[in-house]
Amino acid sequence: MNFLSPIYFLFLLAIPIVIILYLLRTRRQVLVVPSIYLWKRYTREELRYSVLKKFLRDILLFLQILAIILITLGLVKPSIFSFVRARNVVFIIDTSCSMQAKDIKPTRFDSAKVEALKLVDSLEKGTGISVFSSDSKTRFLLDYTFDKKKVKETINSLFPTDTEGSIIETLNYIEKLSKKPDMIYLFTDGAFEGEILSSLPIKVFTFAKDNNNVGITSASARDTGIKGEKEIFIKVENFSKSKKSVPLQVWEGERLIETSNLELNPGEERAVIIGPKRFNGIVKAIIYPNDLLSVDDKVYLTFPKVKPSVLLVTRENPYLEIALSLADIGILDKTDKFDLEMLSKYDIVIFDGTAPNEVLPGNYVFIGKIPENIPLQVADIETNPVVFRIDSTNPIMRFVDLKGMSMKRSVIFESSQGEGLITTKNGPILWSYEGVFGRMVAFGFYPEESSLIESSSFPVLVRNIIDWLGENPSPSIAKSGSVITLRTKEMDENVTITTPYGVIKRITDDRRTIAFGDTYKAGVYSFRSSLGNIDVGVNLCSASESNISLRIPSKKYREDTLSREKILLNTDIWRFLALGALGVIFLEGYLFYSRRLT
Amino acid sequence: MSLLSPEFLSYLERLDLLIKRSVKGSSVGERLSSRYGRGIEFQDYRSYEIGDDFRYIDWNIYARLDKLFVKLFREEEISIINILFDVSKSMGFGTPSKLYFGKQLSASLGYIGLVNYDLVNLYCISSTVEEKLESLRGRANVMRLLRFLDVLEPQGVTSLNGAIRESLKGLKGKAVFIILSDFLDPNGYEEGLKILNARGYETFVFHILSEEEISPPISGSVKLVDSETGETIELDDIDDILSGYRETLGRFLDEIESFCLNHSIEYIRASSSIPIDRVVLYYMRLGGWLK
Asked: What ipTM does this complex have?
C-alpha cells in the first residue's frame, strides 16, 4: 500500500482532541449513597468502569474516532498496488452509415455496442482499454485506462453517423501509435472496401446478415447554359440480390416536380436526369425501396441565391455607382487603391479605368483596361466603332436594347475563349468569359464615352452582369462528414447553423470565414449570417456505404502476442473510505438522536 | 421515649420472644426451659436413684406403691438476648433512616426482653462493637435502654463478620442473637452467621432496607460515593441500567434469605418506611418471632 498524501496523517491529531472534548463534556452528578456495594456487584467488577472500559462502552465516541480514521485514510489517498498481466487493447467501433442497417435488431450499431460492452466486462482486471470510433474520420475517444466504467460510458455515448467509414485509415492510424495495443477489437459490419492488413493482432466482430439495400449513390447538378437552367443527375444503385421496383419522387420545396418508377436488377445502377429547369430552393429526391438502410434513400440539393459582395475600383463614376445601386448586391465597397488580398474578399471586383497586371481567379468586370494574365488580348483601338452584332441570347444581354448606340472609341478584343457580346466588324468590344479563371466581363469602351450611359439599358446591363457573375453555378451540396466553408461580411460574426441534429452557433474567424465540419448527419444545413440564409444539402452519396454487404471475413487475424509483462495496478480506495466515513457519521447521528428520543 | 409511643409500648407488654432453643444463662429466670431441673412447675416422675435429693421424693406414692419416685420440675431459666444493631454510616440513609428504624426495632425487642425479665445486651456494631449496653434486666432498665438508643449516630464501616466475632468474646452459655442490619457489606455476612449457628445460638436476622435502595431516585450520569468507604463509581445513562440493578438487588436479597433458611436462622426484611408498629405487631408475629 502506498500513500499519495501522507501529510494528511496529521489529521489523526483530531482523535486526542475528540477524546479530551469527550472527557470535558461528561459532567456527572455526585451523589453520596449508603453503599456502592450493589452497584459494583451489578457491574461485576470495578475494572469494567475503568477509563478504558468506559471509552469502549461509549459507542458514539468510538464512531467519532472511526470516522476520523476513515477520513484520514481517505485524505492520505492510499493506493493498493497489485501485480497483474499487462495488456492494452483498443476498441474500434464502426460508426459509419451502414451500421444503421436494421438486418440485426434493433440495428447493427446497437448490437455492436452491446457486444462491445459485454467484452469490456469480460476483460480481466488490469487491461488497459482505449476507444476509437471510425466514420469519415478516425476519432480518438479514450486513452488507455483501467477504468471500465469510463470505457463503457464512452462506448455508450457513441451513435452511428450518416457518413462513409474509414476503418482502414483508422487501423493505419493505430498502427502508427507509439504505444501499440496488444489486441485490437474491431466492431464493424464489414461494409467497406479494402483489406485488413494490420501487423497488430486484431479480432473483428462483424454485424451483418443481409444486403437488401437500394441507395442513391450520386447527386449533382449541371448548368445547361440556357438562361441559368440546370439538370440534376441522380444515380440509383441496387445492392440487393433481388430485382427491385423503386418509386422515385423529386420535390422542389413542397412541390412534387418529378415522379417515376425505377426497375433495377441486382447490382444495376441507373442514372436519372431531372430538368433542365431553373431550380430554386431545396430540391429533394427520394426513393422508396423498402430496404434495410434509409439514410441513402434521399438526397438534398440546394440552389441558393446569394447576394454577391462587390468591390468597385474607380476614381469616380456616378453613373456606374447609380447603376450598381440598382443591382441585387449584398455588399458594395468602393476604393481607388487595392491589393490582391483585398480583392479576394469580394465575390465580384469591378475595375473602372484601371486594372492590375495580374489577377487571381475570380469574378471580374474590366472597363477600359485588362490585366495581362487573363485569356484576352487587345487587338486594336477603333474610333467611332459601329455595332455589328449583339448576342441577345446571352443572359447578360437580356432586355438590353442597344439600337443606335454610338461611342467615341473602343478597344477591339481578341480571344480564343469566351464570347463576344457586342461585336464590331473588327472584333468584340464587350466580352464575357467563364472558365478556370472564373467569370469575367470586359468592356472595350468607357460607357460614359458612349450613348449607352444615358440609355435605360445601362442599369439593366449592369444588373445582368452582376447577376451572371454572382450566380452560383452549381447547387450547394456536400458529402456528409466533409467540411463546409462559408464566408461572411464581418469578422467575429455570429453564424447560426441549423442542422438536422440541432442549432449550433459559430463565430467567424479573422478571415470572415467559418469551417463547419460536424456534418455527420445527412440533411439540409442552414447557415444564417449577415448575407442571409445559405442552405447546403449534405448527403451520403456513397456506393461503398450503400453496399451494406459483409465484405470482410469475421475472424481473429492475430492473437499471439499478448504481453506477459506484469505491471503494477493502482487502485484508488479513497472513495470507499470516504463513503465509509459518511456511513459512520450517519450511524452516529442516528444513534445520537435515537438516544435523545428515548 | 420519642422512639416508641406509650400506646405501642402497652402492646409490647403482652408479647414475648418465641425462643425455640435452650438459652440457659448463668442465673434463674422466668422463662420455662425444656430441661428438667429446679422450678415450681411439676413436669413428671421418675424412679429414685442414689444421689437424688430426698426433698423431691413423693412420699405419698411411696405409701401407696412402696416404691421411691422423685418429682421432676420444669426448670425456669433466664434468656440472654443479644441485639447486634448495625450503626454503620450506611444505616444513616433512608426516609426515615434505617438507623432510626433500627433504633425503634432495638427498643421494641429490648423492651419485650426486659418486661419478660430476660437479660438484654445491646451491641452497636459496625466493623467492630462500637458501643454496647450489657446486662439489662427488668423494667427498671427500659429508660436506660431508650436513652442509649436515642443518642446513637451512624459511624464506622460495616463488617458484620468482625463485629459478630467481637460480640462473642466473653460470652458463655446459650443466648439469642438478633441482628439488625442492612447487610451492605462487601466482605459478606455468611461467616459471622455460621459462627453463631455453629455455637448453637438461636439467631434472628432482621434485614433493614430503605426505599432509596429499592428504587434509587437517580438518573442520567452520576458519580456515586460510598458513604462508608468514600469509594466512587461513575455510571452513565443510569436509567438504562436501573432494571439490571433491581435484578441484582433481588438476587442479593434472595441469597440472604436462602442462606438463613438453610442455616435455620429466622429472617425478616422490611423497608424503613413501614411503620414500626406494623412491623412488630404484624410481621414479626406472622414470622413467628413474637408470641
From this structure: 0.81
